[in-house]
Amino acid sequence: MFNNHSPDSSPSLGFLQKNNSLEERSRIVSSIKERATKDLLSCDNTGGDARFKRIETDFSNLYARGRSFCLPKMEKSPPCSSCWRWWKSSPATSRRLLTNPPRASVWSCPTSPKQVGFTYEIAPVFVLMEQLTLKKMREIVGWPNGEGDGIFSPGGAISNMYSVMIARYKYFPEIKTKGMAAAPRLVLFTSELSHYSIKKASAALGFGTDNLILLNTDERGRVIPADLESKVTEAKQKGYVPVYVNATAGTTVFGAFDPINDIADICEKYNMWLHVDAAWGGGLLMSSKHRHKMSGIHRANSVTWNPHKMMGVPLQCSAILVRERGLLQGCNSMCAGYLFQPDKHYDVTYDTGDKAIQCGRHVDIFKFWLMWKAKGTVGFEQQIDKCLDLSAYLYSKIKNREGFQMVFNGEPQHTNVCFWYLPLSLRHLPDGEEKRERLHKVAPKIKAMMMESGTTMVGYQPQGDQVNFFRMVISNPAATRSDIDFLVEEIERLGQDL
Amino acid sequence: MFNNHSPDSSPSLGFLQKNNSLEERSRIVSSIKERATKDLLSCDNTGGDARFKRIETDFSNLYARGRSFCLPKMEKSPPCSSCWRWWKSSPATSRRLLTNPPRASVWSCPTSPKQVGFTYEIAPVFVLMEQLTLKKMREIVGWPNGEGDGIFSPGGAISNMYSVMIARYKYFPEIKTKGMAAAPRLVLFTSELSHYSIKKASAALGFGTDNLILLNTDERGRVIPADLESKVTEAKQKGYVPVYVNATAGTTVFGAFDPINDIADICEKYNMWLHVDAAWGGGLLMSSKHRHKMSGIHRANSVTWNPHKMMGVPLQCSAILVRERGLLQGCNSMCAGYLFQPDKHYDVTYDTGDKAIQCGRHVDIFKFWLMWKAKGTVGFEQQIDKCLDLSAYLYSKIKNREGFQMVFNGEPQHTNVCFWYLPLSLRHLPDGEEKRERLHKVAPKIKAMMMESGTTMVGYQPQGDQVNFFRMVISNPAATRSDIDFLVEEIERLGQDL
């Protein structure tokens, strides 16, 4: 169940979900139990004083109950992050403790579960949830057996920053101690239409934005691989060292998917790190209908994937996934003695905090875990397909409609539908500067009127030499075709006489 | 009310709180109204088509109602971040819209308020809450009129990272575009006992951990200013450029407060950025009894302060405060056209996102704002004083108690109480390596037994040449003296026969 996932095929998940048959469930439970037991055995202290022996844990009751994820019922107060700790005792002990809350948490946490694991003991359940979920995500990306590493971060920008840090560490680990001065001039590559966080990372991490080379895109907003190769060779001729390429899966404005396989070929040829920023597009990996748009993503060295975007998990919930194990830790560990004592009575490889640039982290995994349990993988797939269907509906509705003009031809790859609306007064103007200037002002005016009248809202922006256009993005599966109809009519109502 | 705050005095707050007298309230409300009106007028488009005129906003109803912060009541669903937008319409419009929810949010957000402002329009209320709260925090730090800048970040480690980035930008702005190669060898200084995030920032940002110079501390864990000065001059003699000093207000293990005034003198003398990491100690600024421990903090160029620590706000809630306005923006802005359109119909200086290294940010301000409204400044002060009283109680209880030994002499500065417990078998051993080795194992054993029996938990760690000792930290004002008594007795019960 954990082993048979082939790249780019529809995900075959071992997760328990409402759609699993009974037979599947029992197989999954056995497999998880076996694995959990193995994990635990590998860190068990045998022999010695029983009082100091590592605690034997039956993790199976954590996830072996399908949808009935067993939340502790505290009698007096909501569970706190420290209390979750007690889950790692045996079920019998847990039950006893849950009805007789320990004084463990009295010192610091008057509120609900809030912190996840710089150390396992602070929030063992959340650490385990993270590990299992990250593994599932890596399986879905297509890495064999879901092997690799990863961490949840406060958002896509930070996840992308991690990817640059890790790539740098992979090629020039001495920078960690000696600084950028220890390396030759390193250059990074990304689409001219990629998210601005790549630029922010270049500035913050000491590369400098001048050393982030922007790649040209085609009419649909996708990186042109030949442009990457020519810029890589040009940089090498200048004596610079190309180390990192970001391919975007779902650009912010056009929703474009860069051709990952072609880019991966070039990365392999020139020994560069391939990161895929699938913050926005990653959700489509859950859809057997749409995941082909990220064909080749299993060749990436790292992937950013934000469940808080297309999958509807409340912000914040972003994952950075890394194919090679150990780099995150190597890159970020500082071995703070006061947190990471090697003489703890459990396997300290569960202390994940030294992988992060943060110390205590907000619990982002719990809501995602619960949503996955509730909806199942199939549920996510349906909701994503629904959003894409709605966008396709909008596209088909306006592509030939009087007064509307698409920014690029063809059905959008993601839910981003980009279009201009031309008021009556502009429709028969000849193309030229005057028309452009007037059209540029239309979207801001209509948006302002929408906000004023409070009926709906849709964003706009210019891009390159294209004047302001609307960008409609749907990530809420509760939207309906009638909402789309309303939007189109509202634009016409407010804008036709401008 | 906003103007009369002098450095290092007890905070004189303009915040509305339950403790304000009626007279004070009316004065504060007028002052806020006046200011809000002024802010608004300065960005109002006068004349022109009324449809495109900037919306006049009466911000006063946002915070002018004391504790009755008026949450919108949506009829069908909880308010979403987009809906909060409607608050900036007039109260009458808001009311109408709230009973007839707009279709604005249908596209993306099926859940509750979750995102704060890379742009104002996404979450205007949260942006304003952030601005006002950051200003209050800067007033409490002691910067004249609360002037300056700041942002909420995902935690103290990221806030500290911001401080290093901003300092670098202040002295070598060209690094943003040209990278670290454009600068001479820069060195940073921090206490050997400071939080490891300073080290992580040095690695991540491209300085290299070798260029972070660690400062010696006294027996209480406070930086020795003379050591800073001698290391600065030594670095300069080698041709390095000292740019940044971190002073810790509340170290992680000892809870020590570095002598800020002495360090500030040296920073001024050598033209270095002074950052105060008050992630842990910042809460004490709310206490007229304890804020003297941070005497001189108003001389800092930047301050990290985590309300999610001592003030009991659920994680995550961390602020980076900057004395000089414009640096955050200058350091991090990338002017992404698709987000920050200059032709928006409101004052785009409210679009705070380009100050951050993140894009969308989790809403951390709301809970903090509500807590402040509910407790008042006096409420925070009481809860902080209570925690410090409890720690003083623990200290006085064990300082002369048989079997207990303090790690350093004198009453702790923060709530960190550091001590060894000596089982009977160790008490009469002569000092020496055998005793050290055996004592080193005591705290881990007792902690393991506590976890096993589920009664309570307290952390331990070694530090420098000091073997494992307990570190008791109290930040929950609901703890009581009897909890402390229990802890001490439990340590004795579990440990005395080891």
Detail the topology: elements first, then pairings.
Two copies of one chain form a homodimer.
Chain A: H1 22-41, H2 60-63, H3 81-84, H4 91-99, E1 115-116, H5 124-141, E2 149-153, H6 156-171, H7 175-178, E3 186-191, H8 197-204, E4 212-215, H9 225-237, E5 241-248, H10 260-270, E6 273-278, E7 302-305, E8 318-322, H11 327-332, E9 361-362, H12 365-398, E10 404-406, E11 417-421, H13 424-427, H14 433-453, E12 459-463, E13 466-472, H15 481-495
Parallel strand pairs in A: 3-4, 3-5, 5-6, 6-7
Antiparallel strand pairs in A: 1-9, 2-8, 7-8, 10-11, 11-13, 12-13
GO molecular function (chains A, B): glutamate decarboxylase activity; pyridoxal phosphate binding
GO cellular component, one term (chains A, B): presynaptic active zone
Protein name (chains A, B): Glutamate decarboxylase 1
Describe this structure in words.
- 2 copies of one chain form a homodimer.
- Chain A is of the alpha/beta class.
- Chain A folds into 3 domains: 22-112, no CATH class; 124-363, Aspartate Aminotransferase, domain 2 (3-Layer(aba) Sandwich); 380-495, Aspartate Aminotransferase, domain 1 (Alpha-Beta Complex), CATH 3.90.1150.170.
- Chain A has 15 helices and 13 strands.
- The first copy, chain A, has helices at residues 22-41, 60-63, 81-84, 91-99, 124-141, 156-171, 175-178, 197-204, 225-237, 260-270, 327-332, 365-398, 424-427, 433-453, 481-495, and strands spanning 115-116, 149-153, 186-191, 212-215, 241-248, 273-278, 302-305, 318-322, 361-362, 404-406, 417-421, 459-463, 466-472.
- In chain A, the strands form 3 sheets. Chain A has a 7-stranded mixed beta sheet with strand order 2-8-7-6-5-3-4, with helices on both faces. In chain A, strands 10-11-13-12 form a 4-stranded antiparallel beta sheet.
- In chain A, strand 3 (186-191), helix 8 and strand 4 form a beta-alpha-beta unit.
- In chain A, helix 6 (156-171) packs across helix 8.
- The longest helix of chain A is centred in the last third of the chain and has 34 residues, at 365-398.
- The interface between A and B is large, with 112 and 111 residues.
